[in-house]
Write a structure and sequence with these properties.
Blueprint: E1 7-12, H1 18-28, E2 31-36, E3 39-44, H2 46-55, E4 63-70, H3 74-82, H4 86-89, E5 96-102, H5 110-129, E6 142-148, E7 152-158, H6 179-188, E8 197-199, H7 206-216, E9 251-255, H8 258-270, E10 279-282, E11 301-304, H9 316-334, E12 339-344, H10 349-353, E13 359-365, E14 368-376
Parallel strand pairs: 5-6, 8-9, 8-11, 9-10, 11-12
Antiparallel strand pairs: 1-3, 1-4, 2-3, 4-7, 6-7, 12-14, 13-14
Helix pairs in contact: 3-5, 6-7
Bound molecules: S-adenosylmethionine (SAM).
Length: about 375
């Protein structure tokens, strides 16, 4: 098979960002895009699919569809998985992990399907070379995804390996906000290089780093290793990306926690940004002033995901009203003309801030049902 043939892929993404992802994949050169709940199905040649791994800011992974078949039961799923020439795809010394997703699947147990597909892969290897790959559920070399509906089984090889939102710059810990959700929100907010961006509750700096990397022409996958680099059936070489043309930007962030500000600074350096690319400082969000903007009369975007739990020294239920009232009062006084975007699980935040939202976009931060509110400050 020549590598310019179109093949089929599926890119999962945070729920609510499917259309944003479809637009992004189209710009990268993917075609026949179909946004579905939780992701986008598309076609691309192999080189373009590799580029999507390096350049998509919104996809969580890129899954390559290697086979699909109508199936009735567990036995047929095993036989179907056994029919795939796995040893042509990766070598037996690679560790594997199988995961199954069911959509209206009628089988009794998805775990059992995972087990049977894993058995089929191992059996196919055993009959080819007398050996079987080992299973590693933590850091496998190769991930196989099984999608099961009421009548169809589809097998995917995960091209990405580690999830694409793990960009490789974060110093420690789980992200409070996944990088691909932050990137999608920037696009929903209409942020582009040239528009000043300010996050006065910046934490580890996710919004600002995503935006500053975009403006600096640093690819999101620059520090990422990919599973496709271990594949045998297609060209595993990593595409060389010419660094993009840096564009002007004003990026500023502050947080009340000095340790988090230090973390954000280090994260920005790890992300390949110049020391002065983002201005960080320690400050209470209720007292912030506008950072300078690129041109007078061209205000910018304030983007925050404020704390939603009892983790910042106040009880949310008891103190959030007073806190957000003071936060919004300061913004109303000093940030006329700016647009404020807030990602929150708090459905009554607008009342607390005494501001009327101009837009309300449903989004999921992992399992959390959130809204992205837009407020026009006058
Ligand atoms: C959900 S986290 C934001 C996470 C951030 N978007 C990131 O990328 O890591 C909320 C942040 O609000 C900060 N915060 C809480 N109270 C604050 C205040 N009065 N002024 C400024 N920041 C505050 C917390 O320290 C925390 O970093």
């Amino acid at each position: 098979m020549t590598q310019s043939l179109l093949e089929q892929f599926f890119a999962p993404c945070p729920r609510g960002l499917e259309e944003v992802l479809a637009a992004e994949l189209s710009k990268i050169g993917c075609s026949q895009l179909k946004a579905q709940p939780g992701g986008v199905a598309f076609c691309a040649d192999w080189s373009t699919a590799k580029l999507a791994n390096l350049q998509s800011r919104v996809a969580s992974r890129i899954l390559w569809k290697i086979a699909g078949k109508a199936v009735r039961d567990e036995k047929e799923i095993y036989a179907f998985a056994l029919s795939v020439p796995w040893p042509e795809h990766f070598s037996v010394d690679r560790s594997i992990r199988v995961g199954t997703i069911g959509i209206q699947a009628t089988v009794r147990s998805l775990e059992f399907i995972t087990l049977r597909v894993k058995d089929a892969i191992c059996d196919r290897f055993r009959s080819a070379c007398g050996l079987r790959p080992s299973v590693d559920t933590q850091r496998p070399d190769i991930r196989i995804s099984v999608l099961l509906t009421d009548r169809q089984c589809t097998l995917y090889l995960d091209m990405s390996g580690e999830a694409l939102f793990k960009r490789g710059w974060r110093i420690a810990g789980e992200a409070p906000l996944r990088e691909n959700l932050a990137a999608g929100i920037l696009q929903l907010a209409g942020w582009q290089p040239g528009i000043a961006l300010f996050d006065p509750m910046c934490g580890s700096g996710t919004f600002l780093i995503e935006a500053a990397q975009t403006a600096s022409g640093v690819a999101p996958g620059a520090l990422h290793g990919f599973a496709f680099e271990k594949f045998l059936a297609r060209d595993p070489s990593r595409p060389f990306l010419q660094p993009g043309q840096p564009l002007p930007g004003i990026f500023a962030g502050s947080d009340i926690d000095p340790e988090l500000v230090a973390t954000a600074r280090q994260n920005a350096l790890n992300a390949g940004l110049a020391e002065d690319a983002i201005i960080f400082k320690v400050q209470d969000a209720r007292e912030v002033d506008p950072p300078c903007v690129l041109a007078p009369g061209q205000p910018g975007i304030i983007l925050i995901n404020p704390p939603y739990e009892e983790r910042i020294g106040f009880s949310y239920a008891k103190d959030a009203g007073v806190f957000f009232d003071a936060f919004a009062a300061n913004l109303k006084r000093k940030f006329a003309g700016w647009t404020l975007y807030v990602l929150t699980t708090d459905k009554s935040l607008q009342q607390k801030m005494r501001l009327k939202p101009a837009r309300r976009i449903p989004l999921f931060n992992g399992p959390l049902d959130c809204r992205l509110y837009r407020f026009d400050l006058r």
